Amino acid sequence: MTNASTVPTLVVGLGCQRGCPVSTLRALLDQALQAHQIGLHEIKALASIDLKRDELGLIELAAQLALPLTFFSSEQLAGYHPKLTHHSEIAFERTGCYGVAESAALALAEQLAQVPVKLLISRQKYAQATLALAGAA
C-alpha cells in the first residue's frame, strides 16, 4: 500500500476557445497522457481560468472523468508567468494571463501538493484547446 504522500499530485490545466466540444478536450487529454505514459487514473483534478466557468466542454469533461474542476482568476494565474514555457500575447489580451493551461495546472498542483511543483507536460495544442500537466517537482 503506497503512502498518500508518495503518490504524485498530477493535475491538468486546460484552456479552450468558446464552444470547444468535450470530444476535442478528451482527445487532447488522451493523446497527451498516452504520449507521456501517464494513466488517466493518475490525474487528480482539472483546472482552468474563471472566464471558462460556464464552458460546457470543460464541465462535461470533468463530469465524464469524475474529477474536480477548479477555476482561477487571471490575477491568480498571472504570478506563474515566469514558469511558463509558452507566452501567448493573444491569451494575455483575452484573459490577462500569458498561458491558461500551464498557469492553471501549476496553480492547482501547488494548491493541492503544498510543495514546489513544475510542468510535467508543457503546453500542448489541439484544435481549439490547450493542455498542460503539472505535479510535484
Description of the structure:
The radius of gyration is 14 Å and the shape is globular. The chain contains five helices and five strands, in the order E-H-E-H-E-H-H-H-E-E. Helix 2 (56-65) links the parallel strand 2 (43-49) and strand 3 (69-72). The chain has one domain (11-136): Nucleotidyltransferase, domain 5 (2-Layer Sandwich). The protein has a five-stranded mixed β-sheet with strand order 3-2-1-5-4, sandwiched between helices. It has 137 residues and is of the alpha/beta class. The chain starts with 9 loop residues before the first strand and ends with a strand.
Brief summary of the model shown:
The chain is α/β, with parallel strands linked by helices and 137 residues long. It has helices at residues 22-35, 56-65, 74-78, 89-95, 100-113, and strands spanning 10-16, 43-49, 69-72, 117-126, 129-136.
CATH architecture: 2-Layer Sandwich
Low-pLDDT parts are: 1-5
CATH superfamily label: CobE/GbiG C-terminal domain
How far apart lie the N and C ends? 23 Å
Give me some keywords for this one.
alpha/beta, Nucleotidyltransferase, domain 5, five-stranded mixed sheet
